Each structure stands twice: as structure tokens, then as C-alpha cells.
Amino acid sequence: MENKLQFVDLATSHGKKNSHPGIEHFEYSYKAEITNLYPLTKTEKLYQIQIVDPRERKDFTFQPGQFVMLELPGIGEAPFSISSSPIRHGDLELCIRRVGKMTNFLDRVKRGTKVGISGPFGTHFPVEEMVDNDILLIAGGLGIVPLRSPIMSVLENRSRYGRVDIIYGAREPLELLFTYQYGMWKQFDINLDIIVDKADDKWTGPVGLITEILQKRIDNGTPNDFRKKTNAIVCGPPVMFKFVCEMLIKAGLPMEKMFVSLERRMHCGRGKCCRCNIGSTYTCIEGPVFDYWSVLNLKEAI
Amino acid sequence: MKTERTFLGVPIVKPKVGFFDLSSCEGCQLQMLNNEASLLDFLSLVEIVNFREGMKEKSDDYDIAFVEGSVTRADEEERLKIIRRNAGVVVALGSCACFGGVNQLKNRFNDLEWVKRQVYGDFPIETQEAKPISAFVKVDLEIYGCPIKKEEVEKIVTKLVLGQEITHPNYPVCMECKANENVCLFDLGEPCLGPVTRAGCDSWCPSNRMGCWGCRGPAPAANLKQLEKIAEQKNISKERLLDRLECFGGFGEAAREMRTKVEGGR
Amino acid sequence: MIFKVFQAGEMETLFGLLSVNRIVGPVEKGRDVDGKPLYDFDVVYDFKDLKLDYGQTIHSAKNYFLPYRENLCTFTFDNGDWQKEVDFGADRAHVFFGLHSCDINALNKLDKVLMGNIYPNPFYGAKRSNMFIVGYSCTPTPSCFCHSMGTDSVLHGFDLFLTRMGDEYFAEVQSARAYHILERMETREPTHEDHLHFRKTTSKKRSLFTCEVDTSDLTKILDMEFESEVWEKWGDKCLSCGTCANVCPTCYCYGVEEEVNMDFSHARKVKQLYSCNLVDFAEVAGGHNFRPESSTRLKYRYYHKHRGFVEAYEESLCVGCGRCGNACLADITVPEVIASVREGEK
Fold first, then answer.
1. Which candidate from A28, A74, A99 shows the least CB-CB separation from C260?
2. Cβ(B55)–Cβ(B48) under 8 Å?
3. pTM of the model
4. Is the pLDDT of residue A21 over 60?
5. A113, B9: Cβ pair inside 8 Å?
6. What is the structure's pLDDT at A241?
7. What is the overall mean pLDDT for chain A?
8. Is residue A48 part of a domain?
9. Fold for the domain defined by B2-162
10. Is B8 within 8 Å of A75 when comparing Cβ atoms?
11. Where are the alpha helices (DSSP H) in chain C?
């Protein structure tokens, strides 16, 4: 039987010659527990998810803007931006809208449920490179979700940044997310402007488009400072960020200082399934955070 | 409804279900009884309280009604409406219930009285045009196929019980046929509706070297115009193509249009 | 590289030596309406069934290393908790007997994306690490355009590559295990004459191509013609059936579904090869579809193969095997699509 080919078992050959380090981790997910969950609006809930193993939890590090794949065994797996601060490691917060097969089931689970977490995946907002500069965060609707992590990160390192602005627009007041934190953000010296498309009885703030607030912010600052010192982080529906980014370009902001986070369908998060491809760019590996120059070069991105 | 089990901590209710038949061959229900190996598992999923083909007991207390067959008589219409009233969820089971099925072939004849005489001779039975059950009642879920594919039904019912949204494959049979590495039936000179028919059957017929007859109805992006051109190019007559498109009723309007064009051209 | 020469009759000996393993090779699957044989890869038990002089197979051999359906993991539920079990789906080595250079090049390209980047795929890797490949030189069919894609010869990624030269085979030996197998057969060292004969044979093969694709500046042209109307013309024909991707030796896109057993004790996560031409390929939760029209989906397919992959790896993801065009009922072929996109320049 000397012609019998020897079987190479990749599952056990880890560390040996020609094997890829960490290859067995491809399908690995951290066992995590939903320690708490609470509704933020009618359709969105905030899930606090803790990686069960203390060591894994501590070793789990990520950058603001990255995402994880959340798996409900037997139900499905989907990508979600991390909404918590990086200093919390594997104690994650995910804000999830009830919208599809997997999230509809997720909406029914109770705290204590064990889920799978893999990642973190993708690119991040380069908040480290924004030190000493002004940061302008612009969010439309659910777009606030991926921005909460950089917001937290900036808050925790407030002395390292100049002026920080958040401009956040939603369709109506009842759809606003993280309302309980607005006071804290303001107290930590963040300029927070919120605008809605349609007011309700209780709304006293401005009504209109996000671009109106942005125009005021641009007009209020010294043009030179704005051009030189501002970094913009934009997230929201494609129409919104197209208008916003065009305004920012007009105001003189360089494209490589404007960052957006894109949403696509994903089945793997690891650059294999191609479902998230824009043109031929993997959103999961080269994104979800892109600078606006890259976005302009992506066909069909916006 | 009893809460017996949980899945990921979510309480899962074991629903009471009934199987009912209107005008049909009852083959879909037979499929459910076939393959005893998985029958017990199926019974752990649901409690069957009404199934004429499978048991003696009969109850009108059910949550989900699986209805096989099309409506071809006034009394069936009445029965269907009662089932709708009793059930929380009505499932159209198989091509007859979904599209009218083979039964709806009779609708092609303009003179239904003539049809009746041909079929029943001197003992006529009051019948009307064969229609899918959705023509009379709200249908919550359609399970396609002539007959249905049991493995698929089991998956669908599991999802239904778990409270998950049911989605059907959005691609045509070709996708499954190629994955099964079959020889394309067009290469063998046979017509096949695989390129336009909704998948989910795991290319049951083409895998057995029989061209698809479209029993599951059109796939969402079905390109029938191109199929017509393909048939023409392969010397497959419009009549042969129409035979298949009309067979189960799933291609309704598109098939009627093609028929009108063919007959108008004569 | 080490070269050997052996008599044509020794081929059966080679097959016999390797047959203690499972051999996958080209076999005849039937005849079409015109009586022409239809070939595909299958497990071969008898040397007589091995049709080495096949033109092209309907499908590539990818089902053996990139299966159409594959179990990614199994979950076992117990008392509110669960355990996850992963099996890479390989338990033995396979011999691939008679792969053409296009298909070996396809494997080399798949290696780059599936094994090369930061998340190497063990499901593919486990099977890929267990392939013994006997390459076989081909005669171009009318739909072959590998020559245009630079894949009509192959430099690595096989154990043995055989080229027919008269009554003999010229063997390129690329692995020690292939060398040891050849030691058990009657072979001889090639002479200078053999070398010349080999070069003559390959240059003759190159002259036989009748199908060409002009790939010069293609990445840029595709960007320039992004809004071109030709995409709609092809989109109107496209059946959105996924056949092109399924027969393609390099298409690897997939979708994942999870399913729970009827008794809720287990669940499976199943991967299914998908196709970017399918209507819901780019649909996100909530129903928004980034590519609702068949023309944009078809265009995307060309972008991925002929632009994106080139940007990432400086080579196309198409090997010019012609299978997609052969299998497409709507007669959409790569050479014609690319020619029509280029037409603007004339």
C-alpha cells in the first residue's frame, strides 16, 4: 500500500510545516452571554453581550468602527457594528433593529441566552490619528450605532481632542437612539445637535434636514480651522451621506479626512462569501469604514 | 396550546394542526405519511388533530391548517371558509392549492358544460373553474410542488413552529440541477422549465433525466421571454413549451399571454 | 524541474499505481442530441472509463474541494446551552487524474483568495492539502480562450503534468511523491530531441486556438463602460439562474443557512455555493437590494472576475475554460460580452 497517499489532517496539523497559523479558528466563535437587553425604541434594542470565558473576554480587543458576527445557533448569523467602548474589551454592546429572520428571533430571547461572537472584523475609524484635531460626527437614523463606539472612545480621551461635534438626524423623535446619554455627552463638552424630519407634540428641537445643521456648523467655524483641523465621521443611509459628504467637500474638507461606514449583506465576515462586495471590494475586509476617496472609487457604493 | 419546549430560552408552543383536502389526488398528504423514519420527529413538532388520510380522530380545534387541492365546487368553497375561520395559519400545500394545479387545465376550455359531459357523461356533477385557495381565503404560507417535497416541508414546519419567517429559494431549479452535476436536458433535446421555475425541489425531475414541468411556479426573476427564444432555437415547439407552462397553473398570466399569441398567430 | 518520458501504454500502470486512492477524472456522462459525447468529472474505478482526451467537461471538479453544499458546523443543544462542533470535511486524499492547465490554474487562483488572505479557509484547505494532481495537456475546443487569459500552460500546483507526444508521454514532475510513483513505472530520461518535440507540441497547441479575448486595459475599460448600455442587452438575456457560477472552476461565492432539527436537539450551519447573478445576492435584511436588475448583477460578475481580482492579485479570476458560455442557455459567453464592452473604443 505504499502508493496510498498520506492524509494530511489540517485540523491537527496546526503549527507544523506548511500549515496556516490559526486556520482552525476560521469557524471559531466565542461563547457569549446576553447579560442584559433593553428596548431603545419600538424596533431597536441594546444587547449587552459578555464573552463567557474571562480570559477570552480580556483578550478580545477591537477598534471603534469594527464589527462582529453574532450567531444565534440554528437561527442565523449576521454582522453588527460594536456600539461600546473599546476599553470594555469583550463586554460588548450591540444595538440591533428587528428587521430580518435572525433579528426577529433575537428580539424574543431573554437575558442569559448564550450566543456566539466572532471577530472583530473590518477596518475602523482612525480616532488615534485624529488626536489634537476637531472631530465632526454626523449620523442619520441607525447610523448612530457604529458611531457610538468612536464617541465613547473620544469621551474617554477627551483631553486629546479639540472641538467635538455630533450632528444626529432621525425621522421622528421616537426613533432617536441612546437618548439617555445625550446629557452626559453634552456635559463632557460635546456639541450635540439633533434634528428630526417630523416633530411630535413633545419635540422642542429643530425640524428639518441634517444638512441644515451641518451648514450652520460649517458657517460658524473659521474656514481655515475647519479645513485644516476637522475630521468627519459620517454614517447613515446612502442618500444622506452623499449629500453630507458633498457639503463637506465644498467646505474644503479633504476627502481622506472624511470617513464613512457602509452596510452590506454578509455571510462570513472573512472575505470569502463575496456577498458584501461593492464592485469588487470586500466591505468586510477593506471596509466597513472607508475614507471618502475610496468610496468615490467604489462603483455602485452610493 | 401547550408550552412544552424552549429553543434558546424562547418558549416554543407545539401547535395543533390539521390536514385537509379539496380537489386533488391527495398525493401531497401521502408524502407527509411517507418516510416513517422522520414521522415521529414530525409528531414531536406538531400535534395532528385532523388528518383523514392518516387517522380516525377529527377535531376542529387546530392552529395551523394544511390545505391540499384546488377549489372546483361550491361546497369546497364553504369548507375552505370554515377551515379559514378555525385556523390561525392557513398553509396552501402543493401546486393545486397554490396555483390550481393540474385541475386548472380544464379552465382552458371555454365550454365547461362540454367538459362536464365528456368527463361525467350522464351523471354530471356541479363543478366550477378550478382555482387556488387564495382566490377565496387569505393564505398565510404556500408550500410548492407536485407533489410537495417532504424534507422541505419538514424544514418549513420547523421554522413555522419556531416562529421564524419562511422564505423560499429565490433562484430557479437550474441552480440545484447544476449543483447536482446533471447533464442539461436541453443538451439531450428535451424541454425543461428549470431556468424559470422556483427551486426547492433539489431538481427532483431533472436529476432523474426528466425535464422540469414548472410545478413550483415561476422563480422571482424568471426570464420567460428568453426561455421562449431558447426553445425556438432548440426547435422545441411553442405548443410543447406551453404544455408545461400551463400544466400546473403557476405561470398563469404569462402562459395565457403566450397561448393568446400562439393562437392569434394561427 | 524534473522531466521524464514514458510509453503511452504505461498510462494504465500509472492509473493502477494510484488506484489504491480514490481517483477523480473525466468520464463520459452521455451524448447530446447530435451524438457528441458529454464529459464530467467523477470517481473513476476502471481505467477504461477515464476519457483523457475529453475536450471540456460540463462542470469543473470543484465539488471535490469546494463542494456545492457543505456543513460548516453542527450545534448540539442541551439545557439552554449549546456546543459547536466543526468538521472541515476531509477524510482522505484524492487523486485528480487528467486536469487541464486551466483547471490547475483555477486552483492556484482559488488558493490566493481562500488560503492567502488573513482568514485562510480550512474547509477548502483541508481538501486542497489532500490532492494529488495529474495534469493533462489538452487540445483547445472552439470555446476555449485560456490562451488569452494566460492560463494555457501551468507552472505549479500539480504533482505530475503529462503531454502526449506521439506514442509517448512527456512528464513534468513537481513533487517527490510523484517522482516515487514514476519510479515504479518504466520511464526514461528525456533526450534533447524530446525537449524539442515537447516545445513543438505546445506551440502547435497554441496555434489551435480559435477564440480570443482582448484583455489589454480591461480593468480601465470596465470602469469607463460602467454605465454602458451593453450591460442591459446582456442583462435582458440573462436567466439569473446561476449556471455560469456553478460550472465555473473559480467561482467561490456562497450563502449560509442554518436549520434546526425537528426535535430541537441539533442544528446545522450549511454553506451553499451561490451566484452573484441570483436575484437576492446583494439583498440586505429589511429587503433593500443593491443589485435588483439582472444587468447590474451580470456586470458585477464581470467586475469581480476581470477587474477586482486583477487589482488585488494582478491576474484575472477567469481561466478561459469556456464552461460558462457552453452551459449558458442564453448564449452569454465571456468573449462576446467583453468584445461588446470594448466596442466603444472602435
1. A74
2. yes
3. 0.92
4. no
5. yes
6. 83
7. 89
8. yes
9. Rossmann fold (3.40.50)
10. yes
11. 11-18, 101-115, 122-128, 146-149, 176-183, 192-207, 218-224, 230-237, 243-247, 294-303, 309-313, 323-327, 334-342
